[in-house]
Write a structure and sequence with these properties.
2 copies of one chain form a homodimer. The first copy, chain A, is mainly α. In chain A, about 65% of the residues lie in helices and about 0% in strands.
């Protein structure tokens, strides 16, 4: 039924938005000086993880057919390479702004998708492969990024002082 | 379209299964002696988090109408109360088994659901409220538990020695 199809879209989209909101709430409360720390001894810093989730969400823009990435240079620092104190990273202040900008754009564009578009292919699968694997659609991209965000959200929260 | 409705179910169900699998893989590799450690200084232990995700998944059984919880006593230790070294917990060996049992049952039962059942209400919402809020369905429960599992999975992985 069409109703269920739309319900599923709403549920998935809300799940994504809720996870973005959870990170927003965290960022409002955490200080820059806590955010530079490692989430656990010898593991990624909050600084790196914040850059990482921005870079991954920024990649969603072309993947979902919404245009070009806003900050394509972040992928090198925060996806292709592991955390390294010797790598020059954008400041936390900059990253806080970029996090907001990239999600503002993503959420705005996602709001405009109709059902057929949600179930349409994402941009890194060919028409031919998509015909065989219709699961490789936009809904799936948003769902997998929701888990990704929750995963790193669970790590970032460890930096919060109670 | 019916096709899209079923695609959405498959996508959500696979997301859940993938996150369960990721925890299974982690548990295969992590030693009991690493699992008792705190995921970060002063934060929950792996022991507690493992019990927590079992208790939450165990609660899914009645919530999804699959029968009674297998380990209802775990909720007191791992949901209602925070981590406390003075609380007697089931051993890690026991928890490893319970994690497998609860997910084996859940996944088996989820496999049997038809589309209408996936979009049917979960057991803690009344028929009346469900009529007003059709999003409170089984699909939504599975989706929200997927994020929950990813969140704690991101924390547990910090215990893995590279």
């Amino acid at each position: 039924m069409d109703d269920n199809q739309n319900l599923a879209i709403q549920i998935v989209f809300e799940g994504f938005k809720n996870n973005v909101k959870a990170i927003n709430n965290f960022l409002e409360k955490v200080s820059d000086s806590d955010l530079v720390k490692q989430v656990s001894n010898g593991k990624n810093s909050g600084h790196y993880l914040l850059g990482h989730i921005i870079a991954v969400h920024d990649n969603m823009i072309p993947l979902l057919g919404f245009g070009e990435s806003l900050y394509p240079h972040l992928g090198d620092i925060f996806i292709k390479n592991p955390d390294n104190i010797h790598t020059e990273k954008p400041s936390i202040e900059q990253l806080r702004e970029q996090w907001n900008s990239v999600n503002l754009m993503l959420l705005e564009k996602l709001e405009t998708l109709n059902s057929a578009q949600w179930f349409g292919k994402h941009s890194s699968v060919s028409e031919e492969d998509f015909a065989k694997e219709p699961k490789r659609n936009k809904l799936n991209v948003v769902l997998s990024r929701t888990s990704h965000l929750a995963y790193h959200g669970g790590q970032l929260i460890l930096l919060k002082n109670n």
